[in-house]
Specification:
about 550 residues, mainly alpha, three-stranded antiparallel beta sheet, two-stranded antiparallel sheet, 21 helices, membrane, MFS, MFS transporter, cell membrane
Length: about 550
């Protein structure tokens, strides 16, 4: 709580201390001033939170908005009318963005310390906005892929920088509530992105899924320049060049191999094994090397912090199951129930509403009680919801089953993600926050890629086991194909087998979520001391008179 008579802008200065040792007079200068963090979320910190949320909305919405446009890209960029590009070709517009993210995220911690979070955040917004504008001008699929890389270089820095800025602005006592604010775009983006993308493509053109970022980006850059306080960078840390040459391309190759699994249908393909193997070797090499330099590109020493390591493992399993399972639900709506993209997107809204209910509650609670008493409840709700989805069929009621289940899963999401991030960062020292948030974002990026790849391969294999499922799905969207499939009875049987494939794949995601409960059991269940202010409160060296 704020001491009486002290405003949030005041500082506390420790008085000088004087000691005498064997006749030698030793005086210790006053400790540096400590920032006074009020207990409540005040106007200045909300102003900073607005900057971060605006950038996060741009970055996360862009991923899901582009996903909805892939079929459009297949026809728009075809070499001749009536033809369509291969899905694997246009999918590179998503893969290129993801690989750019993976390349730049490891550099973010060093760059934030070197150049300052304010300048780097504005640069990231500008890069993302320029990339968006260029994407709208693309005349070929190759140009679009290249401009998506530029977008990814900016977008990859936005989330770890945003977490660093929010953590430093909030202080340890308010971190949970501020992280809950940052979590809103992270959870709602995958839900409302398809709605926005489908609407823009229908009423305007595909160009607007990128052009809409331009005014938002300009506003975000100006807002950041006005709202973010200037910070003092630490240019004494040199860039870990060897670490960069090992980690950034290694991570990009690893994720490229993982992302290629669904298209190849097997891990044994050369397109998967070669980049995956090289990537793993480079990442392992980085792990052994990273303990040698004083300032490594990624400070893996931070994992000595039990809270950070436990939260990261829990986050990895949660993110893999969540992002993989999230991919299945709208696909089920379209392929088994015959809904269009917009209808499927609207039916995902209950999940977002559930998250909106619990996220602020979980954020407030994580500032007051240990997250080890919060996160397991969220994971249990999500796991129960995922197990419930294993029962989906061709006529599963929307209001009687799907909507309540998704709402419960949303409640679980809101009570899981942000408390985990809060727990991971809360006990780090202030100079470690940028590096810690970088580690969290890399873990989440790898987890989501692995989860999507695993769930996609499992689903594809289940679907391929049915001779009727694929043709039945095609006939559902094109009734003229019913007779070629073998009649309405055969179509119905094929759709039933397709629904069974979805149910079996949901079971895999549910088991993965259940495994997340194991590390969650080791999350702190009692209050631990925060070291966030230690760097600013260390006693200055003694002066001998």
């Amino acid at each position: 709580m704020e001491p009486p008579g002290q405003s949030s802008g005041e500082v506390v200065v420790a008085p000088p201390r004087t000691t005498v040792r064997t006749g030698v007079h030793v005086s210790t200068p006053a400790a540096p001033a400590l920032p006074a963090y009020p207990d409540k979320i005040d106007g200045p910190v909300l102003k900073i939170a607005g900057v971060v949320v605006l950038g996060a909305i741009m970055s996360i919405l862009d991923i899901t908005v582009v996903n909805i446009a892939l079929p459009t890209f297949q026809t728009v960029f075809a070499e001749s009318p009536g033809q369509a590009l291969a899905y694997s070709t246009v999918a590179w517009t998503v893969t290129a963005y993801t690989l750019a993210l993976a390349t730049v995220i490891p550099l973010t911690g060093w760059a934030a310390d070197r150049f300052g979070t304010k300048r780097l955040y504005i640069l990231a917004v500008v890069l993302f906005t320029c990339g968006s504008a260029l994407c709208a001008t693309a005349g070929s699929i190759g140009m679009l892929i290249a401009f998506r890389v530029l977008q990814g270089l900016g977008g990859g820095m936005l989330m770890p920088l945003g977490m660093t800025i929010m953590t430093r602005a909030a202080g340890p006592a308010r971190m949970g509530r501020l992280m809950a604010i940052l979590g809103v775009p992270m959870l709602l983006g995958p839900i409302f992105g398809p709605i926005l993308g489908g609407w823009l493509i229908q009423v305007a053109s595909w160009h607007w899924i990128f052009l809409i970022n331009v005014p938002i980006g300009v506003a975000a850059a100006l807002y950041a320049w006005w709202a973010l306080p200037s910070d003092a960078p630490e240019p004494s840390e040199s860039l870990d060049v060897v670490g960069m040459l090992l980690m950034s391309p290694g991570l990009a190759l690893f994720l490229y191999g993982i992302s290629s699994i669904p298209g190849e249908g097997t891990v044994l393909s050369k397109k998967v094994l070669i980049p995956l193997g090289i990537g793993v070797v480079m990442i392992v090499g980085f792990v052994f090397y990273s303990f040698r330099p004083k300032h490594p590109l990624l400070d893996l020493r931070l994992f000595r912090n039990r809270r950070l390591s436990t939260a990261t493992i829990t986050m990895f399993l949660f993110a893999a199951a969540f992002f993989g399972g999230l991919l299945l639900v709208p696909t089920y709506y379209q392929q088994v129930r015959g809904l269009d993209t917009l209808q499927a997107a609207f039916l995902m809204v209950p999940q977002g509403l559930g998250a909106m209910v619990t996220m602020p509650i979980a954020g407030a609670l994580s500032d007051r009680i240990p997250v080890g008493r919060i996160v397991p409840f969220g994971l249990v709700l999500m796991t129960g919801g995922m197990f419930a989805l294993t029962q989906v069929g061709t006529d599963t009621p929307y209001w009687g089953f799907m909507i309540p289940v998704l709402f419960v899963m949303g409640l679980g999401m809101g009570g899981t993600m942000m408390p985990l991030m809060t727990s991971a960062l809360k006990t780090l020292r202030s100079h470690q926050v940028a590096r810690g948030s970088t580690l969290l974002n890399i873990s989440q990026q790898i987890a989501s890629s692995v989860g999507v790849a695993v769930i996609s391969v499992v689903f594809t294999n289940y679907l391929s086991a049915s001779a009727l499922a694929g043709p039945a799905i095609a006939a559902l969207h094109n009734p003229s194909l019913v007779n070629s499939v073998g009649g309405q009875v055969a179509v119905q049987k094929g759709l039933t087998e397709a629904a069974d494939a979805f149910g079996s794949t949901f079971l895999v995601a549910a088991v993965l979520l259940a495994f997340a409960l194991i590390p969650a059991a080791f999350l702190p269940r009692r209050h631990e001391e925060s070291h966030f202010l230690d760097d600013q409160s260390q006693t200055a060296p003694a002066i001998i008179h």
